[in-house]
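HOLO CASE FILE
Compound: NDP
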Amino acid sequence: MDTHKTKIALITGITGQDGAYLAEFLLKKGYIVHGLKRRSSLFNTDRIDHLYQDPHASKRNFILHYGDLTDSSNLIRIIQEVQPDEIYNLAAQSHVKVSFDTPEYTANADGIGALRILDAVRLLGLVKKTRIYQASTSELYGLVQEVPQSERTPFYPRSPYAVAKLYGYWITVNYREAYDMFACNGILFNHESPVRGETFVTRKITRAVAKIALGLQEKLFLGNLSAQRDWGHAKDYVEAMWLILQQQQPEDYVIATGVTTTVRDFVRMAFAEVGIEIEFSGKDTFEKGVIIDRDEEILNRLNIPVEHIKLGQTVVKVDPQYFRPTEVDLLIGDPSKAKNKLGWIPKYTLPMLVKEMVDNDLQLMRKEEYLKKGGFTILNYFE
Ligand code: NDP
Ligand code: GDR
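Model generated. Tokens follow.
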């Protein structure tokens, strides 16, 4: 038997944050990587453009297919064509707040989408060949039942997103038990990176910090500053996805750092990276963050004009439009099972993650600064 046969992976959601990191990771491991991308009116492959291969080339190990998790016949056709050894189902309407505006679509893509993948594998007779990873989430825990949250903690979802993902979780367990499939849930806590979507809170903060430092934006408007999240780095988390599918037995795993931090403290840490010290005062909707000190050595090193950083200036304000109808107050994961069984150890700490994100956004915003100096209009999106 040839034990070195090249493995084939299919990644749904390949254009997203995790899809991009996972594709890179699997290509380095020697996989042939197929990805599902949606048709859009503009190019939507920014995060994977560095992996792109000319479709006319005779040999390729990175191949994209148009598709959508809401379209069964398309998924069946692609899975039949690709005959994957591993499917990573990462595609989803992944924004919790947006799921309150688009609950039915979110249920379709995030809940029934998982079923469509599992059932395609079953109908095509690939149950013994294809292993499936389902992107489950710490949002399943929702209203706090116990801390830290582990594989045994009861679920209490608090958004249409989380309810849809609850279906995805259980249908994965059910297909594993009913049809003896190698199908697993990774219950991943929040993970971020320089390519995190711009409307998730960490990236929104690091982009704003860079813009404020360069004088391109005045204020950052945020919602619930007291929410606590267990933030890790996406690079570490995609490795865990792969490890989950390499085990003898299909099981579900919590992937987390075990450290939790408030949004407020994330803001403080991000501003500190560019030499700005923030103090918060006021309560609830009246809470604000004001510059109380600046570190001129850091500002000089980063080439940030000191006159942009005005002591006493309010740079953070609460805007209730970012509150959620039902919130998840506290997430902190217990990754013991992943550490013991998978040997998974994250390499990044939160300070390392914050630094990498702020550095990257500072570099990106330099381009905007250059355009502004050239007389071009800079657009500020406050989403
Ligand atoms: P992103 O939002 O960055 O990426 C989502 C991906 O799904 C994009 O490629 C998007 O395509 C695609 N997509 C959305 N809807 C559909 C659809 N109907 N059909 C096909 N593709 C679709 O998410 P992340 O990379 O951060 O997360 C990956 C997965 O992990 C998601 O399922 C998310 O819910 C889950 N998760 C994420 C966590 C995190 O902290 N990042 C934590 C726990 C779970 P397009 O680029 O065209 O929009
Ligand atoms: P989350 O991530 O909802 O945990 O879902 P997000 O970054 O959107 O919110 C984290 C916390 O920050 C609070 N918050 C704000 N959030 C956003 N987006 N914008 C704001 O202005 C703002 N102000 C405060 C939120 O209320 C929340 O408490 C992410 C997604 O990646 C999901 O797909 C994934 O399943 C979970 O993480 C684990």
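CASE NOTES: The longest helix spans residues 350-373. Residues 94, 96-97, 137-139, 189-190, 199-201, 204, 222-224, 227, 229, 263, 322, 324, 327-328 surround guanosine-5'-diphosphate-rhamnose (ligand 2) (CB under 6 Å).
CLOSED: yes
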